Every structure is written in C-alpha cells, then in structure tokens.
Amino acid sequence: MIRTPLRPLARILSAREKGENPDAIERENLRLRHEAMRDRMRHRAEGRLFVLALCFVCAYSVIGVRMGLLAAGEPSEVQVASTDSEIVAQRANIVDRNGRILATNLSTHSLYAQTRDLVDPERAAHELSLIFPDLDEAELLKDFTGSRKFLWIKKKLSPEQMQLVHDIGEPGLLFGPREMRLYPNGQLAAHILGGASFGREGVHSAEVIGTAGVEKQFDAWLRDPANKGAPLQLSIDLTVQATSREILEAGMKLMNAKGASSVLMDVHTGEILSMISLPDFDPNDRPSPLLKGDPGDSPLFNRAVQGVYELGSVFKIFTAAQAMDLGLVNPDTIIDANAPMRWGKFSIKEFRNKNYGKLSVTDVIVNSSNVGTAKMALAIGAERQQSFLDRLGFLKATDLEMVEAPTGKPLLPPRWTEISTITVSYGHGISSSPVHLAAGYASLLNGGTKVTPTLLRRSAPQVGERVVSERVSKEARKMLRAVVSSGTASFGDVPGYAVGGKTGTADKPKPNGGYYSDKVIATFASVFPAHDPKYVLIVTLDEPVETSGSTPRRTAGWTSVPVAAEIIERTAPLLGLRPAPEPGAEVAVVRTSN
Fold first, then answer.
1. Residues ≥6 apart with Cβ < 8 Å to 121
2. Res. 74 pLDDT band, cuts 50 70 90
C-alpha cells in the first residue's frame, strides 16, 4: 500500500515561500489519513454484521419452514425400517360412457390401538362403545388388557367419529391414513360395479381390491400404475340407468313380483347402456351372502347375468327366423296349427287350450302359437336348431366383462331329442339369462350379424359373423312389430317409437321336478324403432301378479310389457331418439274449424 507523505516537499517549499506554517500541512494530512483508516474499518465491520445477520435469517427460515411442515403433517409413530414393499393405496376411477363417476376413492382414517400405551383401558373401552354401538365394551376391555400389543378397532372412520375418538385423549388410540372405495350413486349399478374391500393392510395404508362385478374383473387394470390414473370407462349411461331402475322398481312393486331385471343394449355395438337386477344392494355397505335358502333370493344375485330361466315364447322368433333363412317358409306360408298336437306320449297345447287352426308364419308369432312353432322346429331339425342357437350364443356363458358371467351358463336338455327340439322352439327345456336373450335379439334384428354384449365403451359397431340374411332380419322385425300393434304385446306400443317385441310367460320349475301352476317368469323382449333398430330392451319379472281385475293375471302381456313400455317412453329421449312417424303408416287427416 502506498501512503501519501505527511510532509510533501512541494507543498512545504510553497508554504515557506508564502510564510505559512509547514506543520499545519502535516497535521491536515495526518487527519485525513486517520479518517480514511476509520472509514475502512467501519465498512469492514458493517460487512461482517450483514453476513452474520443473513446467516441468522436463513437459519430461522429453515426452522420455521420445518415447524410448519410438522404442524401440517399427519402425526405418526417412529417406525423401524422395513424391507417389505409399500402398499400402494391407489385405484383408478370407474366412470360411465359420459365420464360421470361411478366409483372413486375417498381419503379416510383407520383406528387402531397400541395396548401398551393405553393409560386407562377401562375408560377407553367404555368411550369407544359409546361412539361405535357395534363394538362390545367387554370384548374391547378384554383385548386392551390381554396379551395383544396391537389391535385393529375400525378400518374406516368418518371425520366426526375421528374427532370423537381424538377427544377421548387416550395416547394408545392411534389413527392411520388410508383410502377407501366410494360409490357415490349408492344402489345404482350395484351389480355391475360389484364392490371392493381391503386386502393386504398396513398401519399407514391398505390395498383396495375388487370383490365382485367389474371391480374384480378389472382389478389388476384398476391398480396398474402404468395407466397413469386413467379411469375405466363403461358403456353404462348413468341417467338411463337411474331412470330404468326407478321404473323397474315401481313396476316390480305394482306387479307384486319378488324380483325383476332389465337389460338395455345397443344392437350394433353390443354396448349395455343399462342393466338392473332387483332386489339390489348398496356397494358401500355390501351385505353378506345368504347362508341358507335360495341363493337366487339374495340381493347379491345378479338376475340379469346369473339368473338362467326358461324364458318361454320369446324364443319363437328365433325358430321362425331360422325357418325363413333356410328357405323352409316365408312370412305368408300357411302352417297347420290345430291343437293339441300329439308327439309320441306328449301333447303340445296352446295357452288356455286355444286352437288357432291354420295360420301364416306371421300369425304364428303374433298369436304366439306353440303348435305352429313346433311344426317349424320339426322341419328345421335338432342338429340345425342347436347350431343356430349356438351361433346366437345360447349354448354357453356370455363373455360379459364380469366375474359372475361364467356362472350364468345356460341349462340345456341332456339329450337333444325331437321333443326337446319342439319345446326349445318355444322357450321351454332351455334356460338362459336376460343378457343371452338381449344378445340374441340384437344379433337377429340388427341386420343379421352376431354381436357380443359388453360393458365397456365402444366407438364403432361390431362386425360379427352373419347369423341370418338381411331379408330375414327385416321380416323378423316386421313380425315383432305386428305382435305389438295387434298381438299379445299391445300394451307395449309407445307412440313415435315403433316398438316391436315378443312376450314370454314360462311356468317356474319346482326344485324336485314339475312346474308351479301359479308362479311364472314373465318376459318382454323388445326392439325400437322396429323399422330401424337401435336398441333392444329385455324386461323380466319373477312371479308377477297383476291384481287390478277380478282375477289375478300373470302373463307377460299384463305384467312385463307395460313396465317395458314405460322404460322405453322415458329413456328413448335420453338416448337421443326423437318421436317420429312410422314409415308406411297412414297419416290421418283431421278436419278442424277456425
């Protein structure tokens, strides 16, 4: 460092020439030097203080942030490091075809006890029994004072219950965060979704696994992190499902039936837009299976998929369609339907012992003639009949995406004899589910190509094997339309929607053989619009009795048909179908005055 001299020679000589005191110059320079040294020392001290203050600010900021995180986080016990894999408590949502939530996850807490840390076990047991009435105080106290060190008390808690337990103030009662499966629509679509429960459990999470329905069928997919949280989209329309269930439940009560089911299906894509089985249940609180009695009476039983019934005369259109496709008959072919018809030791009769005489094929379907149908079946033969029903899917369980689908396997004749061919032709001697029937009607009436029912959203029609020709498919639709306009299903006519369909009333079989005389399965299989089919609707009532008249009426025309008509009238607008005049129908001209 170069210092300025205190007595610069030039200034000293100049001051002597002017007669000034040279010592004043030295004092001035010394003062300036001292001031510069003081300024440097002050700046150095201020810098050190600034660095020290900055260190304090950073330290206190880190401490404050950490304290905030601890305050906002969930309290947890210190745990020993474990090599076990972490339970991933995450499951994809299930949505309907429009993206509306059917099943999702809800964050909640579980309650468990570390019995070693309980201060007052007797008080804790008493307070918990007051909060949870289903818990036994004596049993809790026995567990709290026994040898067990860890005890699950409740797997799921509401926020209110959690606060009440917290207010007990017992350090041995602890909470663990977890996710639970939530079905916000309750009973709606219960049999489709099935339900979920807890599998492998830990204190801080639990594995949610499917127990039935699509939850179990797609369990691995719903838990797969590779899907990045993408929801499982079903073909179900939530609005249509809700409307159909409301009407079906009211119809079941009005017709005094013990159970009911309905299936609404797109005839081209095979998508099931609504599927209902009553009685049903709330998947948020799934009941236990029945331990005695008929399993079919359990609310867990899916009548639409698992229920296999003799569906009766709804099968007659298949016989007529196959006979036409084989060239054996046409819609106007006259068949001798004189009843009763003797076949060996068997007698084939008509409903209420009617005798229709000679009928056209169309009138056989319109009047639901057993004898006329049997005559066509005999011309077809057992082998060709089996092959045709197999192509329609009636000889095996459906491929529907539910774990229950394989249990709905049709019941077939042990030996397909000629009498079996006759009875199967009009829906007896073969038992199938409403989903089978929906798929069969869709395949027959959509132009004649096979469709497979599905619960997944599809964007394009299915292209299946041809079952019948387009001509036969069209003629079958005309016959079904005639059944509604002038036959046994007249209550099924819905103005503007040209409904076609076929009724079926089958006596229920007894467990030990034979049939009940006063218990039936009433079914109406319908298509709309019949001239340009879009949807098939199957409505089945178990043991219905219509009692508005002087005598009880159990046939499908009086029971299931009105219910199906109401469903079509309410749901068709929701499906985007506008009422329209039927092609070829005469338009009446009404003269009015001004």
1. 115, 141, 144, 145, 172
2. low
Q: Which residue has the tokens 């049997």?
A: 374
Burial (Cβ within 10 Å: 0-12, 13-18, ≥19) of residue 384: middle
Indicate yes or no: pTM above 0.85.
no
Q: Using an 8 Å Cβ cutoff, are 396 and 410 in contact? A: yes
Say which DSSP state 447 is in: S
Q: Give the three-state DSSP class for 360.
A: strand
Average pLDDT over residues 38-56: 89
Contacts for 363 with CB less than 8 Å, ≥ 6 apart: 356, 369, 372
- My answer on whether omega of the bond before 184 falls inside 30° of 0, hence cis, is no
Residue 207 clears pLDDT 70, i.e. is over it: yes
What are the Cα distances from residue 90, in Å, to 8, 82, 206, 375? 87, 21, 9, 60
DSSP-assigned beta bridge partners for residue 506? 521
415-425 confidence digits (pLDDT tens): 999 999 999 99
Q: Is the dihedral of CA 561, 567, 571, 573 positive or negative?
A: positive
To the nearest whole percent, how much of the chain has pLDDT over 90? 62
Chain Cα centroid distance, residue 247 = 19
Query: What is the β-pairing status of strands 195-201 and 259-266?
Result: unpaired
DSSP 484-544: HHHSTTGGG--TTS--EEEEEEEEEEPTTSSEEEEEEEEEEEEEESSSS--EEEEEEEES-
Helix-helix angle 370-380:418-425, to 10 degrees: 130
Task: Report the length, in residues, of the chain.
Answer: 594
E strands in 315-410? 334-337, 341-343, 346-348, 357-360
Per-residue buried b or exposed e for 514-553, using 16+ beta carbons within 10 Å of the residue's own CB: eeeeebbbbbbbbbbbbbebbbbbbbbbbbbbbeeeeeeb
**Is-contact 559 253, C-beta < 8 A?**
no
Give the list of residues 6+ apart from residue 532 with CB closer than 8 angstroms, or none: none
